[in-house]
Request: fold
Amino acid sequence: MSDRDWSAYAKSTYQWKPGHKKMLRMTKTSLTSDFDYCPKQYEYKRIHRLPEPSSDAMMKGNNVHEAIEVFYDNVPPVLDELHTLMQRNKTEEALQLALSVMPEQEYVLGEGPSIEQRIRWDLARLLAGGKENYLPVINELEIHAFVEEEFEFNGEVHTIPIHFAGSIDRGYATDEGTYALMELKTGKWVQTKNRQDEWKDSKFKLESMRQEMAFYKYLLQVADHPYQDVSHWGWVYPSGNTAKLDPLNKYGYEQRGVNKITYEPATGRTWTTFRKRVERLKAALLTAYLAEDFPTKASAGKCAWCNFKPICPSWDGSDNPQEYLDSYKED
Ligand code: SF4
Reply:
């Protein structure tokens, strides 16, 4: 990601309480990923700042994001040539030229195929849509908004200073003068086969992606940003097929991992539905802060991935962050 605006982050904290001199920080990841996943996990991670081992998946994600950001920074001088090659059906030459504008780097976590797939899709977009709106107007851009919100809790109205923040992977101008936001993900994208023998995307995954994108649109609006008129959003999963999956899911349906692009309108009922979801999540987060209560949201599947399970009260843990820290240091 581009250099972070530390002076903006210095104005807010996750350790917020009423009357704190800093604002309450609310980011796309902290709200729509961490808090939505489990408020107790959010408390451990964001408020107690308990460390977690970094994973290969995180490093791969960072490396692919950096490579694609550099690609858009460096591609303008060769854009005409790329377009001509694509028009002449010389896709492999275009791909090599596109890859040549990125710094040479040795990757060991499978980043190469993900970057290549991502660029192949982008070259197809260049051929289909032309050069005019090809380059992003947003390329890993941090957005910050500082607001005060009135919030009712226990019959009392509280004025809460909130710092909304998020880093948007890409935004493109559309031919209609609106904007389209695109998110890059390096995780798996799983489809299952239904009774009619059709491969279907996971409804849960689709809805969680829409919720993330709705946060970005909401953030642009709260920030009164010039690109706030978002008419479309989407996401790319260029490593979607790399997941090692059992042939059948836990309900006995066939499943597979696929590379996937989704692009859809972000207006009308979709926007209303997912804006409301973001607002409900925000209200639940504010309630948790004011009540000083971050409940567990346990399920065997989810908790299996949680580093804090040994101290989690839903699993007979002590709920003591120090115990986790002591054992983390020993490891
Ligand atoms: S183990 Fe489960 S319920 Fe407990 S903090 Fe982690 S995700 Fe939440």
